[in-house]
Amino acid sequence: MRVARVTAFGGPEVLVTAEAPDPVAGPGEVVVAVAVVDTLFVETQIRTGWGQEYFPVRPPYIPGSGIAGTVRAVGEGVDGDWTGRRVVASIESGAAAELAVAPVESLVPVPDGLPLTTAAALIHDGVTAAALMEITKPAAGQRVLILGASGGMGTLLVQLAKARGAYVVGVARGERKTALVRELGADAVVDGAVRDWPARAREALGAAGADVVLDGVGGEVGLSAFPLTATGGRFSAHGAPTGGFTPADPREAAARGITLLGIKDVQIPEKDRVRLAAQSLEAAATGHLRPVIGATFPLEQTAQAHRAIEERALLGKALLTC
């Protein structure tokens, strides 16, 4: 089978297309003929060697952990009815391949009529966005500030927060991205490329600030957003495409009654991951949730996909097709 392989830590050029043996399903596992592979910004960071304390992977390895495709074979103890079914699954590694092995308990059936590209776009971001809604609990009339609102997960958060009746302020960079966030239903959009964006966000939020801040960016951007959190609010620092998670001061948060949440709060158990993935797929199938797919790349162009993600050239997500 064809795979994309990271040969060493480094830039996108370390990604090559190679051949690998076809995998075999073990007990409790299935082999999926992969049609679409999800890609995440964090995977480009892992490829450079970043985040070893969180992601202790060493080259050579096959990147990716989200697949959409059709079950080709089942292992011992797995119901044969899975064979031929369209599914998504989150696996530990090895997604960027024509065939991948997944534990049967990780499989989520794809609703009839839902394209596998749409399903793949929700494997990770749909699950995490839904989990963030459950954790931060934005309510009708509350004000929600979303950083990185034009990204794969940010676009979903805008829609989910609006569906809960929240007043949503999105932050994105540039005219194309701010226009997308506005189209998705944000009540106010702030261009994060302008120097005084925190002041503009404050104006949009009102004097009290945001009841919920969803920080998918991290670094200095997240630090600039932290003061915009209302007293008694919730601040989720779950993203780090800037190179680090927002180092919000726990003492300041405690003094203002702010609940601080981080990447550990969205390490979702398998049972909940399957539940939230099914929920996201159903919402997409019924037209209540729309993932934004900026581009799809064939497996042989995995390096180009990583480069496009790193350059922030896309609206929404990048996917690989096999």
Question: Any overview of this molecule?
Answer:
The protein has 322 residues and is of the alpha/beta class. It contains ten helices and 15 strands. It has helices at residues 41-48, 116-120, 125-136, 152-163, 175-183, 197-205, 219-225, 250-255, 270-285, 302-310, and strands at residues 2-6, 15-19, 29-38, 66-74, 86-90, 99-103, 108-109, 143-147, 167-172, 188-191, 210-215, 229-237, 259-262, 293-298, 317-321. Strands 3, 4, 5, 6, 7, 14 and 15 form a seven-stranded mixed sheet that branches. Strands 10-9-8-11-12-13 form a six-stranded parallel sheet, sandwiched between helices. The model has no long low-confidence stretch (mean pLDDT 96).
Structural key phrases:
alpha/beta; 322 residues; six-stranded parallel beta sheet
Short description:
The protein has 322 residues and is α/β, with parallel strands linked by helices.
**Estimated helix fraction:** 25-40%
Cα Rg: 20 Å
Tally of strands: 15
Main beta sheet: 7 strands, mixed
Order of helices and strands: EEEHEEEEHHEHEHEHEHEHEHEHE
- Strand residues, percent: 25-35%
| Low-pLDDT residue intervals, each spanning 5 or more residues | none
Mean pLDDT: 96
Number of helices, where a helix is a run of at least 4 consecutive DSSP H or I residues:
10
Distance between the terminal alpha carbons, to the nearest Å? 10 Å
By helix and strand content, what is the structural category?
alpha/beta
| Overall spatial form | globular
